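Question thread 4412

I'm putting together a teaching handout and wanted feedback from people who do this every day. The idea is simple: show students a protein as raw sequence, then show them the C-alpha cells that encode its fold, then repeat with a second protein so they can compare. Below is the first pair exactly as I plan to print it.
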Amino acid sequence: MRCTKGWGSIKQGWGMTEVTTGAIHVPGGVEDKTGSAGVLDQNCECKLLDDDGNEVPEGEPGEMYIRSPNVSMKYWKNEEATRETMLSDGWLRTGDIAVCRGDWFWIVDRKKELIKVNALQVAPAELEAALLENDDIADAAVVGMKMNDEEFPRAYVVLKDAVKQRPNPLTGEQIQEWIKPRVAKHKWLTGGVELIDEVPKLPSGKIMRKVMREWANSFRDEISGVTESKTVKKSLTYESYKYLESYNLVR
C-alpha cells in the first residue's frame, strides 16, 4: 500500500510493546511482496528456538527471541510474567513463530496457537494459506481439536457465494481429500472440515481462535462416545472417523 500523495510508502514490520514498538522492518526503498516482516534493526539480535531450546536450521520455524537495548526490563508488578518472558541474559521470549531465510524474517504463527500432532508442530496459518489456494474457498480458519491428550487439525471453511449456488457444492470431505497431496501427513485435516457462513474475526481482521476452539470442543463433546452421530457423518470422512476411533476417541 502506498501513500496516495506520493510522500512515502507504508512498509511491513514486526514489533510489540516489550521491544518499544519495533525490531524488524522492511528497509526503505525496498519493495517486498512475499509478506516478510523484514530484516533486523540495528543493535538487535534474534534467534529462533525449538521446544528443546535449540536453534532451528534456516528455513525452519522456531519461536522468536529478541535481544536489544530497547527491550523492556520487566512488567510492572508482575514478576511471574517477567520470569517467563524476559530472561536473565537479556533475551525476550516473544511467543511468535518465525522463519528466517538469509537476513529476512517471516512471522508464521503464535506459539500458543500451534497444533501438536504426534509430537509434531502444525501451524494453523500454514494450513489456512493452503486452503485459500483452492479457488472455491473464500476464507478458512484452522484450530486444534483436543481429545484424550491428542490434538487433531480441524478446519472451518467459507465457500465462495458462486460455489454455494452450485447443484453440488464443495463438501468438507472433498476439501479433506484435496489438501492431502499438498501438506505432510501429520497436517491432514483429521479433525474434520465444517462449512460455515463466516469466520469470526476481530475488527482488526484477527481470527477469533478462542471462539473457534470452543466450536471444536463442542463438536468433540458431541462425537465422544457416540456410535451413529449425524454430526460425525456430516463433518468427518469415514477415514477420519476410523482414525479417531483407533485412539478410542469415538465408539
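The second pair follows. I'd like the answer to focus on this one:
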Amino acid sequence: KGTLYEGGLRVPSIVEWPSRIEPKATQFQAGAVDIFPTILEVVGLPEETMLPVHDGVSLCPLFDGESNNRKKPMGFRWNGGGAWINGRYKLVILNTSKNTKKGKQEKESQELFDLVVDPTESKSIAQEKPLVFQKLMREYAQFSQSIDESMRGRDYPSGRLEKPDPEPKRWSADETIYTPFRKVFEEEQKFLNKLTKPAKGN
C-alpha cells in the first residue's frame, strides 16, 4: 500500500458462491465501488435505486463468465495524486514536495502505462501515446472534479437519504413558554445543589 502504482492498488479478492460461480482465477479489475451495484443486480433491484453519481459496476457478468473486461474506468485519489485505469492503459499522477532554501517546492508528474505489456509499470509511454495520454488526463480531471462535488454535497439531491433539516427554534424573551419545563429545571437544580466538592486527597 501507500502508492498509486499497481503494488499499492492491486490486491487479491476471493468471492465464494458455489451455486453460481465456477471456480476460476481472473485479472478483472474491480474495487469496493462495485459491491453495491453487484448486490442490486443480485437482489433484482433496478439501477435507478442508486443515486445518479456512482463509479461502480455489477460483477454479475464476471460471476457468470460473460465478460472479463471492465466497462467503466477506475479512479483513485491519494496524497495529492491520483490514478486512472481505462482498459489496458493506466494514468499515474504523482505530487512530490521537498524543502529547499526558497521554501517548500511541489512537483507534479504524469505517467502513462500499458498494463498488458508492462504490468510492472517500468516505462511511461506518455510521449509515445499522446492521444491516449490526453484522453485519460481529461477523464481523470472529470473524475477528480466529481469527487470534489460529492464531498461538497453537490452531486446528490437532499431529501432522499435523509429528511430535510427542521426549522430552527430560537430562544424567546417571553419566559412563559418555559413554564411547562420549570418544574424539571427546579428539580435538577436541587440535585445539583446537593453535590459537594470532594475533599482534597479523595
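Top answer:
Good format. For the second protein you could add a caption like this: The domain at 6-151 is CATH 3.30.1120.10 (Arylsulfatase, C-terminal domain). The first helix runs from residue 6 to 9.
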